Structure formats: structure tokens, C-alpha cells
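assembly run, all chains below
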Amino acid sequence: MFSNTPPGSEIFKYDKPFAFHRGGSLPSLQLAYEQFGKANADNSNIVLLFTGLSPTAHATASTADPSPGWWEQVIGVGRAIDTNHWNVICINSLGSCKGSTGPASINPATGKAWRLDFPELAIEDIASSANLLLEHLGIDKVAAVVGPSMGGMTALAWLKQNPGRCQHFLAISTAAAAEPYAIAIRSMQREIICKDPNWQAGNYTEECWPQEGMRLARKIGMVSYRSAEEWRSRFGRDDQVRFPQTTWGMNYAIESYLQAAADRFVGQFDPASYIYLSRAMDWFDVTRDPSKLCHSVEVPGCQRIAEKLCEVKLASACIIGVNSDLLFPLHQQKELAEGLDTCATRVEFHQPNSLQGHDSFLVDFERFNPIIKQYFRNLD
Amino acid sequence: MFSNTPPGSEIFKYDKPFAFHRGGSLPSLQLAYEQFGKANADNSNIVLLFTGLSPTAHATASTADPSPGWWEQVIGVGRAIDTNHWNVICINSLGSCKGSTGPASINPATGKAWRLDFPELAIEDIASSANLLLEHLGIDKVAAVVGPSMGGMTALAWLKQNPGRCQHFLAISTAAAAEPYAIAIRSMQREIICKDPNWQAGNYTEECWPQEGMRLARKIGMVSYRSAEEWRSRFGRDDQVRFPQTTWGMNYAIESYLQAAADRFVGQFDPASYIYLSRAMDWFDVTRDPSKLCHSVEVPGCQRIAEKLCEVKLASACIIGVNSDLLFPLHQQKELAEGLDTCATRVEFHQPNSLQGHDSFLVDFERFNPIIKQYFRNLD
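ok done. output:
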């Protein structure tokens, strides 16, 4: 139930061992992906899209799956990333549970789900597994790599691993390294899941799984994904009317909103996958070697980011972030832009005035789409 | 163990019934309080201090209890609130567990702790119970009322209940009503405590109590009490060294900091008291009647605040808030100052540039003390 592949996703099977950056390996793996648009004869119009923590590869509607994707308003014919021109390849991250191999997949050696026997996952593993798919598809270079949120971290890791293989980079509400505030939030989410009595050291079943832990983790997530300003104008001090009023139950609309949002999420995502991907984000630091923990280091500023990313040899980069983002704060977008600006020919930095916090790129299309559309138009 | 009175706190016992604003009553109650300084012959130098959610009445060292208080650097001889001049009375809130009657106190009818049989507690109850103590002490008017955080809400409720009985008001990092973001955080904290298997519908024991729930709730609290900027400069991406490194354990200094902070708190505060006080803050809206839930209302702006507080007839008010406060955001301090400015003779609004978020008033004395000292000097 936690592991499900969207009907339009294609499955790429890789039957050789895959080694992880922090040690350990898989005997084989598979990646779920979807393509939107059509590749040129010379593959010069490929856009590689990495996702945030939870989305599938189904970024937008397709013939194979006409249901709306998670970035439906951004990708499509005539949209900001125009599939009349670009061929977008979206990959479900290694470690996720939407068709790609992850902790919910079956370990062939045991016939049971990997769960906590899955190797330690780094963002760099998600990035390097994508290259197996590109090779399979006969793609050597991509025109652009796009990454919102965790996808931006994956894009940065991929760019660092593949100098000269990509010219353009669109980074949205992401970071070159996790900051302590984001680590604090994700660490609490993992702790809440693992403290659920049904967690059972990762040996939960489909009948008995850490449902309350996942629900609470998602609520904490929502508090970090949205913003106080949005909620003030949207909910005020309205009473909640969705759930029965009980003595110690929910009083306010903000509480029932969080409950409903968490209810929609739980049961849709494997708890072990969730904590693996969450930890991978904490570990990420584009300036460091992923095989080691960092000892007493500052969050990298733009100078160290530049040192690492100049070798990537980008022609252009577009960095978008919003001021109301608590999880990937605006100053991290600025540092990324300043770091890239020392080496890419053309770097744009945009801060749309969105109120919806980290999630703005998933909802505030009025502000995001013109920026994305203009950036891709200039790549032609 | 959850209910303990500081050695210097005096106990005022009130042996008549006390009715709560939302219904229900106590057959009797007691309040723990401490006095710092000496009352004038005409009681013209009384400063009434209400506390945040968790502090005791021991605000500063005294002869009876020479250990440092929670506001040691602010109150004392020659300090910002100079006890050579002022007589500060600090009250442990009704509903708390530091000497005042609350859910951890014994219900005389059953011989057991009240727990969830304690009446529904509103901030207005904390305020009106304080009047019983003032009457007992023979104090009719106070020179100033001071309230940081929840204490500011209590001070606002007290002022509204007692027009003409106080001339000056110092409000620190507080609000005229809870906003949805703060409600979201406190609601999750309560849910985490009540989802702990040891919660037992409030029937926990001293041997088996919701320790993990309290620890997690305190961690969420810390994330709302401090700020990302502070943690970035203080912890960066440092490894944690306080606890053993385990596979799914803590990696970073920010995580061990939260764990240590939570460890210091749990076992010191009664879980039922915690959720009662937390819910009282959500319910608070100085512009509304506490006996009813509010239906579909906006967070009050300065105009509605002014309408309610002009009848209080303050001579002056000093409002302090910091920009890094997530729980009681700066705009709420501004609205409070603007609301009071329409009716008080002299209103000061200060926004010290503190990085420590909501907790700044407990740690950033360098910035807070000059403001508080100047305000109290001008009252002479």
C-alpha cells in the first residue's frame, strides 16, 4: 500500500550492482520515470527534472496518464516549460516508493521489504542513479536540469558529478546544504515516526504501521512548508467545522486544515522511505564529500559554493526563492545565486513575493510561471 | 514530581469557590507568589508580574531563596526593574504546577490529582485569580503590570478586567490574540503529548507518564521559541558530540542541543498542566468574551484592540517585540502598540534586533535591559 507506481510511469530496470556513496550497495535497482514532450533527433532539448521529497515522476498529464501531475500548471504544451519544445524527463528518486527502488522495495536476498536494511542513502546516490537511466535512454547531455526543494539538492549533486553535461540550471526553493533549523524540523519528524509504537524498529506491516507518527510528522512538515502570513489571512481565528468538536479536540480551522492535509498524506508514503529521504537532505552539503559526516563546519556561504560549482561550467542559472520560506530560507537562494554568479555566464535571481512559504512553487503559479517561462524562452 | 514549589514561594490559600469563565469551578485554590523589594506605605510602588507558560514565581533571587530566578538579570537592586524602588509581585499562574492550583493538584472530592477533571482554563481565569491575592495583600491599585509571552496575555486580560487599577503596562513578545501559526504549533504539542501511550487519557502516574510526548513537545516548542538565524551562527553544520552516534540517532549539534533542552524540561512540568495552559493561549483573544469560542473571526487588528483597551485608562505602555519571533510575531506587537496608542498618554514601541526569537527576553539582556530600565525610570 505504501509503494505504488503512477499508471503512466515507465520502469527502467538496472540489473547490476549499484554502490552507495556512504557504503553499501544494491544488487540491482529500478527507477520510475515519465517523459513529457518529444526528444529531438540530437537530444538537444532534454530537461531533467528532479523532485522534492514526496512527489512521483508524474509531473504533468500525459497520454499514458491523463490525470493532473504535481506540476501540471508548469509543464505542458504552451506552459512555462513548453513540451512543444522541451522533452522533460522526471525521475522518481531512488529511495522513494513511487516505482523506484527504496526501503519499501523487496530485498531479493530475503524476499521481504528492505526497510532499515536499505543502504544509507545520500542525495548524491539519487543523482548518480539518474545517470544510469540517461545512459539507458542514450542521452549524453541535457539542456537543463530543474530542481525544486530536495530536487534542487539532487540537481546540484548531479551537476557536480557531471561537469560539462548540462548548460542550464533552474533551482527553486532549495539549498546548497541543510541549515540547522531545517535539520531540527526533519530530525523531529523522523523521531516522531520512529517513536510511534507501531514503528517496530522498521518492521511494521500493512495492517499495523506508524500511522499517528506519520500524521504528526506531516503536520510538522506543513508548519515548515507554509507560512504564518498565509494562515493568518486564510484562517484567522475561524472555528473548525470539519471534525466533531470534542473536549480536547480541534477548535480552530487551522487545526482541521492540518489534520485533513495529514490524512491525505498518510498511507500514501512509506514511513521508512520518508525517513531515508529526510535524512539524506540533512546530510547534503554540495561543498563536502557525501561519504563522510562533516565535522564542525559552517553552513557554506557563496564562496565555498562557487568553488565547488565553477567546475560544472554552466552557461546560465535561474535561482528562485521566497521570503516566507522557513525550510529553505531566502538567504540560501541568494548565496546559491552569488556562488554561481562567479562562474556562470548569466545568473538570474528572483524572489517572487509569495505568501505560501516553501510550498509556493506548488501553488503560486501566477508569480512563478512568468519567471520560469521567461527563463526557458531565453534558452531557445 | 511534576508539581513542586520553589523554596522561596509563599502560598496564598483561598478557601472559597472560584468560578471559571468557561464554566466549572474549584472549591478552593491556592496561588504561589514571591515578592521582590518592599511595598511603600501607600502601596504606590507595586509591579505585578505575570509569567510565560512554564516559569515559577521565583523571578529573581531573594533572601528566602538565593538561587537565581528566571528573570534574574532584569529584576533586583540596581537592575532594570530596580527593587530598591519597586515591589515586584510575581505569581505562578493558576493551572500551573509550581505551587498554584492546577491539574496536578489534589481534587479534595476524590483525593486524587484533578488532571482532566480540572475546569476548562482560560487566560482570564489566571488574571482574575490574581485579584484574590491582591485583595489578600491589601493592594487595591498597582503601579505597573508586566507580562512577557503568555504573561502578556494574562496582563491584557487583567487590565481589561480591572479598568483604572493600573497606570503602566510593559508587554514583551506577547499578543492580543493567538494567530493560526502559533495555534498550529501548540495544537501539535498537545496532540503529541496526548498520543503518547503513557498519557492514558490523563491517568498517568509518576512511574509511567508521557515522557517521550513531553520531550517531543518541548523540542517543537524550542523550534518556535528560537530562530533559524541564531542556530545558523551558533551550530552551523557541526556534528553532535553529547550523545552516542547511532545509525538512526542524532548527527548534528542542533539535534543534541534540542535533546538536552528537552531533557532538562521533562519531569519538571506536569503534562496535564502543560496542555491546559497551552490551550488557554490558543483561546485567548482580548477582544472577545472568553466564555465562548469565536466563530469565523479575523485575528483582531489594532482598531479592535484599541476599542477593548481604551477603557483600561493606561497612562503609559511599553511594547517590546523582536523580528525573529515566530510564535508572537513582530506585527502583533505593532498592532498592540498602535491599538494602545489611541488611548494611552504615552506608548513606546521597541523592536530590539535580537536573534534569539521568542526567547530573546530570557537571554538577550544586553538589548532588553536598557529599554526596560529606561521605561521604569520614567515612571518615577
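Chain B has a mean pLDDT of 95.

Chain B touches chain A through 56 residues (CB under 8 Å).

not gonna interpret more than that til we talk
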